[in-house]
Amino acid sequence: MNGRPALRLAVLISGRGSNMAAIARACQSGEIAAQIAVVIADRDGAAGIAWAAESGLPTRVIPRPAGSEREAFEAALIDAIDAAGAELVVLAGFMRVLSAPFVEHYAGRMLNIHPSLLPKFKGLHTHQRALAAGEREHGASVHFVTPELDGGPVVCQGRVSVLGGDDEHSLSARVQQIEHRIYPKVIGWIAAGRLGWRDGMIQLDGRPLPAPLCEELTP
Ligand code: GRF
After folding, report:
1. If you measure from the C-alpha of residue 48 to the centroid of ligand 1, how many angstroms do you get, rounded to a whole number?
2. Pocket test for ligand 1, best of 16, 96, 113 (most atoms within 8 A of CB)
3. 140 within ligand 1 shell (Cβ under 6 A)
């Protein structure tokens, strides 16, 4: 490691939390110079929050009751993120659309992983849509978050081939394997001070990144 203090992460989830678990393992093994300062879920039943608590990670559940104001919900999120001293916000299957003021508050300090080769298939049901479109390649993208949904600058993509006989389930399982590799890797670059998004440009190792880096899944 490079002698820097571990980068403090707030990981936001809504469901299973397999990306959060992959990130936690990479932190724990020392593969990346980061630590999970808090895992925040927007619902009590999120499977990932139970895993995080059992693993000894600090957890918070911040629900947004139906009909309640988004402002109050996001203010509670900001309080929890800042109280944990988090330096990077990691969206990992967090199923809430965040407002522009929230996103701008964390500009350059918030990442998301999306299960498609952006800019293809923004939004939901990406595996189903990739299959229906007859794509031969599919994958996942790690990007900085901007107010445009799934529209921020992409740092790294992982590709998988779409195989004959693939269904949504088999394709999504292979995409997830590659998600679990690329998300910790990108966080590790930020933790090592190698990657940043400044003045509207991604910089890696002191140079602008002209196109997303790419990783293939090799079976
Ligand atoms: C992943 O497919 C990710 O790309 C998307 O939400 C899913 C979360 O999965 N943003 P998990 O909860 O990390 O298992």
Report:
1. 11
2. 113
3. yes
Write out the chain's pLDDT in tens, 219 residues: 557 899 999 999 999 999 999 999 999 999 999 999 999 999 989 999 999 999 999 999 999 888 889 999 999 999 999 999 999 999 999 999 999 999 999 999 999 999 999 999 999 999 999 999 999 999 999 999 999 999 999 999 999 999 999 999 999 999 999 999 999 999 999 999 999 998 889 999 999 998 999 888 765
SS3 at position 189: helix
The question of whether 114 is a catalytic residue gets the answer: yes
Our answer on whether the CB atom of 115 is closer than 6 Å to any ligand 1 atom is yes
Ligand 1 pocket residue status of 158, Cβ below 6 Å: no
Q: Which residue in the list 105, 114, 125, 143 is annotated as catalytic?
A: 114
Strands 137-144, 154-161: parallel, antiparallel or unpaired by DSSP?
A: antiparallel
Report the helix count and the strand count for the chain, using DSSP H and E. Answer: 6, 11
Helix (H, G, I), strand (E, B) or coil at 191: helix
User: Can you read off the two tokens belonging to residue 148?
Assistant: 């445009």
Distance of CA 90 to the CA centre of its chain: 5
HSE, side-chain direction, 13 A CA sphere, residue 65: 2
